[in-house]
Amino acid sequence: MDTDAYKIQTRNLDLYYGTKQALRGVSIDIRPNRVTALIGPSGCGKSTYLRSLNRMNDLIDGVRIEGDVLIDDVNIYDKEVDVVELRKRVGMIFQKSNPFPKSVYDNVAYGPRINGIHERQKLDEIVERSLRRSALWDEVNDDLRKSALALSGGQQQRLCIARALAVDPEVLLMDEPASALDPIATAKIEELIYELKQNYTIVIVTHNMQQAARVSDYTAFFYMGQLIEYDETKKMFTTPEKKQTEEYITGRFG
Amino acid sequence: MTRHFERELDDLKTNLIRMGNLVWEQLDAACRALFELDQGLALQVIQHDAEVDEFDTLIDRDCQRIFATTQPVAADLRLLMSALKINSQLERIGDIAVNVAERVEALQGHGDFLRNTRLKEMAEIARIMVHDSLDAFISGNSSLAARVLESDDVVDNLDRQIFHALLAEMCTDPHVVVPAAHIMILSRHLERLADHATNIAEDVIFLVKARLVKHNAYADRE
User: Fold this and answer.
1) Separation CA A43–CA A150 (nearest Å)
2) Which of A2, A12, A197, A244 has its CA 20 to 30 A from that of A114?
């Protein structure tokens, strides 16, 4: 198979929290500039898998990982890999928006400043571009000094996306990015995901099956730490191969 | 939630089966009325069509509500799509039963001429196709549905044969023009009947096998 066609490749990924095995031989090839949704019941390993793609699990005590995670053909678990650099390339957006208690501007400029960019004009450009890409610019450009905490939940989540975009990542990992939002804010996030895939590879965990069906190109179904089925979303939601997948997506699980 | 949803789908399927039975009875009565030239029975068929229309509306509304409230996927989605399409086919079969019943009056006094055509043979095959397509839906039997598809050509051929035979008779004997013209139209109705049965059978295959056979099936048979 042509490996150039994939942005991220995981091969036989096993992950243990202490003695508990959370991922069992997961192999998925993720295509660039596509949205890949990870679905499955709570505790199935989908969030663990997502976090393994930018080594967020390294922060948890007792985690042991076997197998390979390749991004652009480089194993991100190799000793030489700089984790800070990796997380710049692979940004993450969480379920609960977590803006810093700073201004809108400073939230977005935070990453670039840490990376040594201090020139005002350059920062202005990055902040505007990032806020435009996260579809928030029109709603906040009259007062970028406003506290981020004064924004609505949906705006805060888009600010967090802008903050992730500001360091110019290649991959965006999203862990239930819209589950705490109302339907209008959710629709904006989904529209944004659709726009963002032009420039980024997106992997999203969602409990909302219809959201997975709406926003993703590929869907992976996890159950008890294993990848059960992975295919084009249109195939997964119309004619899944595996009975377990069918039972899960039609709400007949267990 | 899940049980409630499954009950909704079961109810939908039950209504479709009840409608199928009603349409089948209508068709059966219309054919009997035709070949026995029984005007009383024909009138009953015409009157009962309102019940078929009621089912049609009921099933349409149920499908719309289930689509809107449950966003079905996979097999559930196929069941709903098939239910909508089969419903529409059944409603048309019901209309054809009425069309057949409406010609009974015009054929009074032409019983012998009618019996000399192959229309009864054609009606029998088309009726079996409708019956089998409904059976295939009820039992989820895709091989029975596949057999229905095969019969469509037989009916098409009979339609052509009846048309040419009647045309020849009309050319030689102007006295048969009236009954022959009615029988030609009946033959076309029965040909449409077989098409609707074929469509139902295709929907059953889609439902059971998740496979669209519509255009391939036609291509294979042409």
Assistant:
1) 34
2) A197
